[in-house]
Amino acid sequence: MVQVNEVEWSNTEKNVARKAFDQAYIREVNTLIKEVCQQASVISDLNHLWELHDFLSARRHELDGKYDYRYSVLIFVFARLLNEGWLHINELEGLAKDKLIKIEALARMQNFN
Amino acid sequence: MVQVNEVEWSNTEKNVARKAFDQAYIREVNTLIKEVCQQASVISDLNHLWELHDFLSARRHELDGKYDYRYSVLIFVFARLLNEGWLHINELEGLAKDKLIKIEALARMQNFN
């Protein structure tokens, strides 16, 4: 088990983390908005409409849980965002090497869905 | 209090009622679909998206409750649909006169929201 609960974050690292976190969030949200606009544009009956509603309910719940900016879980959050393609490892440049190694290892190992 | 719980519906009345009910439902659903498509087309940020989600949640709940085809409540359902403009009294032609009078009276009297 990778020990990350007690990890310290320097001010520089906090800046890098915040920027990367926000960037991933903006990317995912913009993609979601495009997807919803596309789905909505072809709705022809009530079943489609409720499918869109179910889809939004699920994505809202998922986003609320996923974007958790607590330093105690941030390593896992970044691993997931890397794994899902919302973040590139280059965007975490400036974090301590041991954090980057953990994030990359977790991103490869874990199934986040 | 208008007594309608024990109202009897003839076969002719049932046919009229079913057709009018379905017609109102189709009208309301089509209007809702247009509204959602319009709202979705101008979404620019996540708050708008969650507003659309909240709107859909509310409308789904409302429609589920409103379109209740039980003969014991149909007088009230038609009164509400008339009140909200989804149905015109002419479309209930064929129902017994006492039912039409009750429906029209309720449509004028009640606040359904």
Question: What's the topology here?
Answer:
Two copies of one chain form a homodimer.
Chain A: H1 11-41, H2 46-66, H3 74-84, H4 97-109
Number of E-state strands of chain A: 0
**Largest inter-chain interface?**
A-B, 19 and 19 residues
Structural class of chain A: mainly alpha
* Gyration radius over CA of chain A: 17 Å
- The total tally of domains of chain A equals 1
Binned, the helix content of chain A reads 55-70%
Proportion of residues in β-strands of chain A? under 5%
Query: Could you state the order of secondary-structure elements of chain A as H and E?
Result: HHHH
Total number of helices of chain A: 4
Q: Could you explain the architecture of this structure?
A:
2 copies of one chain form a homodimer. The first copy, chain A, is 67% helix and 0% strand. The first copy, chain A, is an all-alpha fold and 113 residues long. Chain A has one domain (16-32, 45-110). In chain A, helix 1 (11-41) runs antiparallel to helix 2 (46-66) and helix 3 (74-84) crosses helix 4. Chain A is elongated. Chain A binds chain B through residues 29, 32-33, 36-37, 39-41, 43-46, 49-50, 52-53, 56-57, 60, and chain B through 29, 32-33, 36-37, 39-41, 43-46, 49-50, 52-53, 56-57, 60. Chains A, B: This is Fluorescence recovery protein. Chains A, B: InterPro entries: Fluoresc_Recovery_Reg, FRP.
